[in-house]
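Weekly sync, protein design subgroup
Attendees: M.S., D.O., the rotation student, P.L. (late)

Item 1: inverse folding check
M.S. brought a backbone from last month's batch and wanted to see whether the design step gives back something sensible before we order anything. D.O. pointed out we never logged the input encoding, so this time it goes straight into the notes. Structure tokens as presented (69 positions):
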């Protein structure tokens, strides 16, 4: 299932993580990990969004199965 509601949940989670990064600050031991996750999830979400927007073969490029199955 894919749609605007799921996209908004992903965006909300990334935004929340970015806010937490501001709260904990760069001296916190988990800051680099959180920053890496925020960047990776944001980039993956954007790639999936663009792939669907440009009429990709499969609605989700990050599935375990290819478009044929």
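Designed sequence read out in the meeting:
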């Amino acid at each position: 299932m894919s749609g605007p509601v799921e996209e908004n949940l992903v965006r909300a989670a990334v935004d929340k993580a970015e806010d937490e990064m501001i709260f904990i600050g760069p001296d916190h031991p988990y800051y680099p990990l959180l920053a890496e996750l925020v960047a990776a999830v944001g980039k993956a979400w954007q790639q999936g969004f663009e792939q669907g927007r440009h009429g990709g073969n499969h609605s989700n490029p990050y599935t375990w199965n290819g478009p044929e199955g």
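Discussion: Helices lie at 4-24, 31-53. The two ends are 16 Å apart (CA to CA).
Action: P.L. to compare against the previous round before Friday.
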